[in-house]
Amino acid sequence: MLIAALVAGLVAFLAAGAGCFALVSGSRNTTGPIDCGGDRCIPTLRVGPVVDALKSQGHDCNLDGGDWVCKLSIGAVYYEASIGAAPGDQISEVRGTVTKPEGSPLSARSVNYLVWLASLPFAGDKPTTSQIRTWVSERVKDSKDSKAKISGYEYELDSSNQHEIAFSVRGMRS
């Protein structure tokens, strides 16, 4: 019963992703990274709205060494999103991890969680988010560390450890 409720919570989280997507993205037209205090930041995102969106979906979020770390457990699967904070409520990096039991397949829900995080810099840009969805969905099956450059950002997804899938996106220097 508890697991069913937790699974329903994750389904609601992922279903609400589109709404959260709109909430966490700014209205700027620039999608490529910008300079921000020595880092390259995502101009369409701000820390506060992203953390609030994660909290609203059940994550427990805490500031850890300047970054926000948001955690959620549903059954035997553990989700973690880390938001690299920069000056002015800006975001320099988004990281995500899905940890699942050994030998169990990665669920569609878990893939959607990684896709949601990966797509945050490009809310409203359907061609780019489609490209990101395809890249993430294919890379989680590869069982290796993969990198891609998409619209000025470096994406990395490590699926070499099938127990823990790790993802990150950060702005590249030009």
What does this protein look like?
This protein is an alpha+beta fold. Helix content is 33%, strand content 34%. A 7-stranded antiparallel β-sheet has the order 3-4-5-6-9-8-7. It has a two-stranded antiparallel sheet with strand order 1-2. The longest helix is centred in the N-terminal third of the chain and has 14 residues, at 2-15. The chain is globular. The chain starts with a helix and ends with a strand.
What is the average per-residue confidence, as pLDDT, rounded to a whole number?
83
Based on CA inertia axes, which overall geometry fits? globular
Helical run tally: 5
Instruction: Tell how many strands the DSSP assignment holds.
Output: 9
The H/E string reads: HHEEHEEEEHHEEE
- Strand portion: 25-35%
The major beta sheet can be summarized as: 7 strands, antiparallel
Summarize the amount of helix as a percent range. 25-40%
Cross-sheet strand order for the largest sheet: 3-4-5-6-9-8-7
Radius of gyration: 15 Å
Précis, in short:
With 174 residues, the chain is of the alpha+beta class.
